Amino acid sequence: MIILGIDPGVATTGYGVIRTEGNNKWSAIDYGCILTSSKAVFSKRLSKIFNELKILIKKYKPEKIVVEKIYFAKNVKTAFQVGEARGVIVLTADLNNVPVCELTPLQVKQALTGYGQASKQQIQKMVKLVLRLKEIPRPDDAADALAIAIAGAQMNNFLD
């Protein structure tokens, strides 16, 4: 199964594509970020996320997209904007007939480390270990997206 993990954002949307290879064994296919310019009109930034995500879906043909839920934001304006980006991501998945699973950061941390308060560094080290990578994926948003994909794969194993 191919799973696309998404760490939503407006300026930076991380993505990570993994392949499941049996029970609790995964490999990274691709990862990176969709970047938008803060100088662009907001609607154009959302359009860029839509268009680039559509390309990723067509290229990798994921059977599931896992998106991180927003659970806390210090800045209300930022939270609303990230929520709009999440809406674009969920809509893009639906328009391409790909089921969506939404996980909280706590669920992702628990899935990777067994501890809901794990640090970003602990999560990144687990991503490297679980996917058998030579180094921690960069940038952080891409590593987070891979973690989200892995958590979605574990959830899938649990539900199957």
Average per-residue pLDDT, rounded, comes to 92
Number of helices: 5
Q: Strand-and-helix sequence, N→C?
A: EEEHEHEHHH
Name the beta content range.
Answer: 15-25%
Describe the main β-sheet briefly.
5 strands, mixed
Helix content range of the residues, please? 40-55%
Question: Runs with pLDDT <50, length 5+?
Answer: none
Rounded to the nearest angstrom, the distance between the terminal CA atoms is 13 Å
Question: How many beta strands in the DSSP annotation?
Answer: 5
Question: Which shape, going by the Cα principal axes?
Answer: globular
Give the structural class.
alpha/beta
Secondary-structure map with pairings?
Elements lengths: L1 E6 L4 E9 L5 E10 L6 H19 L3 E5 L7 H20 L4 E4 L1 H9 L6 H11 L9 H20 L1
Parallel strand pairs: 1-4, 4-5
Antiparallel strand pairs: 1-2, 2-3
Helix pairs in contact: 1-2, 3-5, 4-5
Structural write-up:
Strands 3-2-1-4-5 form a five-stranded mixed sheet. The two termini are 13 Å apart. The protein is α/β, with parallel strands linked by helices and 160 residues long. The chain has helices at residues 42-60, 76-95, 105-113, 120-130, 140-159, and strands spanning 2-7, 12-20, 26-35, 64-68, 100-103.
Describe this protein with a few key phrases.
160 residues; five-stranded mixed β-sheet; single chain; globular; alpha/beta
Write a short abstract of this structure.
With 160 residues, the chain is of the alpha/beta class.
